[in-house]
Task: structure prediction
Amino acid sequence: MRIEAYERIFMILAGLMLVLGIVGIGVGALVAGVHVPSPAGRIDPRTLSTTPPFDQPGLRDLGGGKYEAVVIARAWQFQPNEIQVPVGATVTFTLASPDVIHGFVLTGTNANVMVIPGQISQVTARFDRPGEYLWVCHEYCGFGHHQMYGKVVVR
Ligand code: CUA
Result:
C-alpha cells in the first residue's frame, strides 16, 4: 500500500501528539502529583448533622499554622459561610451535603471539589496573602443556587 508523503508526515505528527499527550498525563499524575479529588470518606446524609465532625461545623486550629474547616453545603447555604485565618494558614476544607449535589470552588486558589450526598470531600488551600477569598457553589442545585457562597478572610 502506497502512502502519500504528506499523509505519512501527518500520520507521524498525529502519532507524536498522541504519545506526547499520554506522556503529559503520566508526568502530571506520577511526577507533579496532579489528581482528581477522591472521596475522603463516606457519610449518611440523613444523619449528617449529628455525625462528627459535621455535628459541629466550623474552623478548628490544628496547630502549626494548619486549620480544618468543617463546612456543610446544603440547599442553599454554606454552614459556616465565613472563616477567618491568619496569613500563611493552610486550611483543609472538609465538606459534605445532606441533600443534593453542591460544589465548592475557592477563588484565588486551585481548591475545587464537588460535594456529593453520601461522600466527604476534602480540599486544601494555603493563604499567603491577606484578603478575602470568595467561595461559591458551582454545581447548579436549585432555586437558591446563586445564594450559595462564603468567604475566607485572611488577616
Ligand atoms: Cu449549591 Cu449550587
Remarks:
- The chain has a mean pLDDT of 93.
